[in-house]
């Protein structure tokens, strides 16, 4: 579709490293993991898993106690990331003379306020309470994050949440892109947030047998996408946000443009709930490239979905080889989940930020724990095991492939200023 150009003018996240956006990307490029060991005090059996947390995040300090008290942690992380992206875009938090009636929010979350509901179960069944807080529904609803973002920033346009498992925020970003490109919206805040350390959620993922094991010593190296000895994914919490803006509007106000979003493709494998399929992923990537009006040879970096699961990794590599043909052999690919973990509904958003910064800063982050350990079933692309600088990448793909067979692919173009 030919429409308005869409600028990325704001980037924000709650970093698992505890620093700002620049610090986050610097540590990604340095190959530094944020994965640690999570040991809870739950009885009779505590959680003992590799995990990526945001321990430095203080919702009361960032948002203020009254606002933080109205939110489950997933919405707190989302609101903090959105504020960060909004400030990065140089936009005032209070609306001035310019109408924001068509400015909106498109947010992704796989779990929503699961922690709020789990707290309710504990209160009722373990502590014998008969009533819950009247805020419980408001804390737990999946659209809480986008609703709060719209309210706090005075955005009167569409305010939607997307729940598509691991592709939730990628779909949210793609739909936000379409709204700005079509002229329906001038500005969209988009991204995702999730908090998967609820006891029931973590136990459910354990039961699926796709989570990497680990203890205090081994957890930092537990996530090994594309490696021959990979054991599974590592969950993480977080929030990541972008501000997408009509290109001319951004130029008129003198905004700093981090990059340009140029394509979005989606598909469904329509074959199996948890077993990915090459053909479905190929359709999504081809649709995204066609939407961006780019050829395979125009892409200089792929941020892979790369979860470190036995079935998922080889399928993604096979799909990349199908789409990129001979180019695949020299196509730089990395899976940053190896460092920041799998944020479920926020995974696409944090990986989009990594992709946009890779283009903007001319630095391609690596897949760690892979050097000398590549699974023969994952050969055929150029796996980055160390950061690459000075390659002047022109365009990047960010892949998100979810349970349910839902695939979402986003395409970005570098903006040299």
From TrEMBL:
Q: Which InterPro entries match?
A: Beta-ketoacyl_synthase, Ketoacyl_synth_C, Ketoacyl_synth_N, PKS_Beta-ketoAc_synthase_dom, Thiolase-like
- Protein's name according to its UniProt entry: Nodulation protein E
* Subcellular localization: Cell inner membrane
Ketosynthase family 3 (KS3) domain: which residues? 3-414
**Role noted for this protein:** Proposed to synthesize NOD factor fatty acyl chain. Involved in the synthesis of a highly unsaturated fatty acid moiety, which forms part of a lipo-oligosaccharide that is responsible for host specificity.
Q: Keyword set for this entry?
A: Acyltransferase, Cell inner membrane, Cell membrane, Membrane, Nodulation, Transferase, Transmembrane, Transmembrane helix
Write out the similarity annotation.
Answer: Belongs to the thiolase-like superfamily. Beta-ketoacyl-ACP synthases family.
* Molecular function per GO: acyltransferase activity
Which Pfam families does the UniProt entry name for this protein?
ketoacyl-synt, Ketoacyl-synt_C
Specify the species: Aromatoleum evansii (Azoarcus evansii)
